[in-house]
Design brief:
Layout lengths: L1 E2 L16 H10 L1 H6 L25 H6 L16 E4 L5 E3 L5 H9 L6 E4 L4 E4 L2 H11 L38 H15 L37 H8 L26 H9 L26 H14 L12 H4 L15 E7 L6 E6 L5 E6 L3 E6 L5 E6 H13 L29 H4 L5 E6 L7 E6 L2 E6 L10 H8 L8 H5 L4 E6 L3 H4 L5 H9 L17 H10 L17 E7 L4 E6 L5 E8 L2 E8 L4 E3 L4 H4 L4 E4 L5 E5 L4 E5 L4 E6 L6 E6 L5 E6 L4 E5 L8 E3 L6 E6 L5 E6 L3 E8 L9 E9 L10 E6 L6 E5 L3 E6 L3
Antiparallel strand pairs: 1-4, 2-3, 4-5, 6-34, 7-8, 8-9, 9-10, 11-12, 12-13, 13-15, 14-15, 16-17, 17-18, 18-19, 20-21, 21-22, 22-23, 24-25, 25-26, 26-27, 28-29, 29-30, 30-31, 32-33, 33-34
Length: about 800
């Protein structure tokens, strides 16, 4: 509200009745009273009312309250840009009062304009009454408002006998002994002398010696039996939750802290600039010379208040405390001496004299025969009890002889003596491989070799170049007791195979038969001659190891004349011919080979620069198929069968996939977290995997715990070449290029709540030699004893036993 007519733009006021400057001051003095509602306000239609009319409380009608502005105590400049000045009680806009030039002129000539005060909130002019002007005058003279001087009466009458205020001096009786208390003392003394009052105290209030018993308010209550405690008191004791204690003060809270706890000027400035919530402490450590110099702590009351709020608002619950021995939670790591037996040292060595360097080894399930494959196509059979080399198969020479026989068929009629395959124990059929075999299969080592898991058969599978060989080794090793079972394993069940099934094969199958006695004497058998004659005819393009394709007539004539071995027409086999090997041709190099536990299926992973695939071969039916989709098989490097379930473990460069052979889907994808997987082995239970990598890591994968490794072992300094579980004992090992073999104890429990226990027990080193930054390349466990067999690039095979 602005006082005076000239406070409003365009309005002028008369200054004759009251000086202008003084009138403005008086108008401003009652501005607060007008805003508070003490003064009456009239609507625009009543602004021209009589100036001497008294505006008391009765003048404020309900209609005025209805039209009053209800915006509250806010700056009215917020409504300067609007056509209204606020809202009334009904929520309607209070519009500005229109003011014409005639009204402004009337205000200029109005002699009572000095009584009007502008109400800025309601946009009206208020006419001050005589009572309000009297109030303004009393305010100027610093007098009490609302009191009439004529009503004040001076005091008159007699002087009060009891004044309302105390006397200026204390009475004398207050410094003298009380007579009433003296009479009371005399009465008590007389009663004691006459025996009217006893001086005995309560025995409960006395202790031994007659002294008074003192009670400690802060002592804990004595424990009582449960029978003596009521149910309510027992519940109160059980549900009692004591308040958490404050942390004890530190050195920096001392009034004389050490120098290292005092902040530097930069730290103090940084503490002052930081937000209170970002400060580590709510005070700055300060040093005082004496305790009396310490001022009052400014945050003391605030901290006590917040502490009380925490205790009052923060709920405290009673939780049952678990009484568990912490030592029982820590697994007890057994000593290596308690985990025996395990290999402790070198017991025997066999130095092989075969071309190339050793690449892979495999031990028969009987524990007697060991196969060692080299990088130049040679496989040696070693007898473990004696350490002798029983036989050596040279696959590279066999294929070169086959190519040489095929090239010399035209001059065979003029030859003076029949041509023999070298070495004399060769078993390959010369007609299987054509002239282009050397171009189809490049020079590569034997990447993988595996014995058949059947104990009564001596059959092994080896992948050399693009050919998978399934070889009968019973005759070459002189094991006459296994000849019959081995021959039955390789014998084709021809009655179950149809020509349509042969045409659906993914690979080319060929049978190699046992040589006759005439061959052993230096002459070729009729089987070899027939095979040589068959090699003159061109073969089909479906065979990756055969020659160039011929016309259909040659194939029909060949099928009508004699039996075709491979993807040909079935004929009755001769009884006198015994299959001693199977040759299965692939389109890529064979990298990994594994047998099914029944001994009838062989799975292999093939891969080279042109791609890769996974093929599964059934020996009894001479069938091949692709068990996995091309997206999975094209990246496969290692394949293994599950010991008991229809699963196939497929290892790529960085992942291991578990493929369900029946449902034809990937049930789990494992991520060991390594850069390049080098080896893989499955636990006999089938629930755990060992993954070796070229980045010197060994990962134990638990299929029940997820797709991440349960334990990662980083004990080697160079690449890990091979890993393996023991078939019957809780042992596993890994070998590396750092010429060490690490032996671990790995226990697997039937209780699903317990994880596998892995304890390193032995490091075997100093038995192999390094060649071209490559050390130990293979390992094998004895099926019954804790014997570890290792093979290195130095062509040495070492046997580590626990008998040292």
């Amino acid at each position: 509200m602005r006082g005076g007519m000239d406070d409003r733009p365009g309005a002028g006021g008369s200054r004759a009745a009251m000086p202008g400057r003084q009138g403005k001051k008086l108008a401003r003095a009652v501005r607060s009273s007008v805003r508070g509602g003490a003064l009456g306000s009239a609507p625009p239609a009543q602004q021209s009312a009589a100036p001497h009319a008294d505006h008391d409380e009765s003048a404020s009608s309900s209609e005025d309250e209805l039209y009053a502005n209800k915006v509250g105590n806010i700056p009215m400049r917020w409504y300067e840009t609007y056509d209204h000045i606020g809202y009334n009680a009904e929520g309607r806009k209070v519009m500005r009062a229109p003011r014409s030039d005639a009204q402004r002129l009337a205000d200029l000539v109005d002699p009572e304009s000095w009584r009007k005060v502008y109400d800025e909130k309601n946009d009206t002019y208020v006419m001050l009454t005589d009572a309000e002007l009297n109030m303004i005058a009393r305010l100027r003279e610093n007098k009490v408002l609302g009191v009439n001087e004529e009503e004040v009466v001076a005091w008159s009458g007699p002087v009060m006998q009891t004044p309302a205020y105390p006397l200026p001096t204390e009475p004398k009786r207050r410094f003298q002994p009380s007579k009433h208390e003296a009479k009371e003392v005399v009465r008590l003394v007389r009663a004691i002398r006459n025996g009217w009052k006893s001086q005995k105290r309560d025995e409960n209030d006395l202790v031994h010696g007659g002294a008074a018993k003192m009670y400690d308010l802060w002592v804990k209550e004595q424990t009582r039996a449960l029978e003596e405690i009521s149910k309510a008191e027992r519940t109160r004791q059980l549900m009692h939750a004591s308040a958490p204690k404050l942390a004890p003060p530190t050195h920096q809270e001392s009034y004389n802290p050490p120098e290292e706890y005092l902040p530097t000027p930069e730290e103090a400035r940084e503490w002052m600039d930081a937000h209170p919530h970002d400060r580590e402490t709510n005070f700055l450590p300060t040093k005082y010379g004496a305790f009396r110099h310490v001022p009052l702590y400014e945050n003391g009351v605030k901290e006590r208040f917040e502490r009380c709020l925490d205790l009052y608002l923060a709920t405290r619950t009673v939780t049952q405390k678990l009484r568990i021995d912490p030592e029982s939670l820590i697994p007890r790591i057994q000593k290596p001496s308690e985990l025996r037996p395990f290999p402790t040292g070198l017991s025997g060595t066999c130095q092989l004299r075969i071309p190339g360097k050793l690449r892979a080894i495999s031990l028969h399930c009987s524990g007697r025969w060991l196969l060692a494959a080299s990088t130049q196509g040679a496989i040696a059979a070693i007898e473990i009890p004696s350490g002798r080399v029983a036989n050596v198969w040279h696959f590279d020479k066999l294929q070169r002889d086959a190519e040489r026989v095929d090239d010399g068929e035209e001059d065979q009629a003029n030859a003076s003596s029949p041509r023999e395959l070298e070495p004399p124990s060769a078993f390959l059929d010369a007609g299987v491989l054509g002239k282009d075999a050397k171009q189809l299969v490049p020079e590569l080592p034997v990447h993988s070799v595996r014995w058949c898991p059947r104990a009564d058969a001596l059959v092994f599978a080896a992948g050399y170049r693009k050919v998978l060989y399934v070889v009968d080794a019973s005759r070459a090793l002189g094991a006459s007791e296994s000849v019959a079972s081995t021959s039955a394993l390789l014998m084709e069940h021809s009655k179950q195979v149809t020509s349509m099934e042969r045409q659906k094969n993914e690979c080319v199958w060929a049978e190699v038969y046992e040589a006759d006695a005439s061959r052993e004497n230096g002459t070729r058998s009729d089987v070899e001659k027939n095979s040589a004659q068959k090699s003159k005819h061109p073969r089909s393009k479906a065979s990756p190891v055969a020659g160039k394709a011929g016309d259909a007539k040659a194939e029909q004539s060949e099928a009508s004349e004699e039996e075709v071995v491979g993807n040909g027409v079935k004929d009755e086999p001769k009884v006198s011919r015994q299959v001693c090997a199977l040759v299965i041709g692939h389109s890529h190099d064979v990298k990994s080979v594994d047998w099914h536990k029944r001994g009838d299926y062989v799975v292999c992973a093939t891969r080279d620069t042109g791609g890769g695939s996974i093929l599964m071969h059934r020996i009894s039916r001479r069938q091949s198929q692709r068990p996995c989709p091309r997206a999975i098989s094209s990246k496969a490097q290692i394949v293994l069968f599950h010991p008991s379930r229809p699963y196939l473990f497929v290892a790529s460069q960085q992942h291991v996939r578990v493929f369900h052979l029946v449902e034809q889907k990937v049930v789990k994808k494992l991520s060991p977290g390594v850069k390049w997987i080098s080896s893989l082995d499955v636990h006999p239970s089938g629930d755990h995997l060992l993954v070796g990598a070229y980045d010197a890591r060994v990962c134990w994968m638990d299929l029940d715990l997820g797709d991440k490794p349960y334990r990662v072992l980083k004990s080697h300094k160079k690449a890990v070449r091979a890993v393996g579980f023991h078939p019957s004992l809780p042992l596993f090992a890994d070998v590396s290029d750092d010429l060490t073999a690490h032996v671990f104890h790995g226990s697997v429990f039937d209780d699903l709540s317990k994880n596998a226990l892995i304890v390193p027990v032995k490091i075997l080193k100093g038995v192999h030699k390094e060649r071209q930054s490559i050390g130990i390349v293979g390992l094998a466990w004895h099926p019954r004893f804790p014997w570890l067999i290792t093979a290195g690039v130095d062509n040495a095979v070492h046997i580590m036993t626990d008998l040292v």
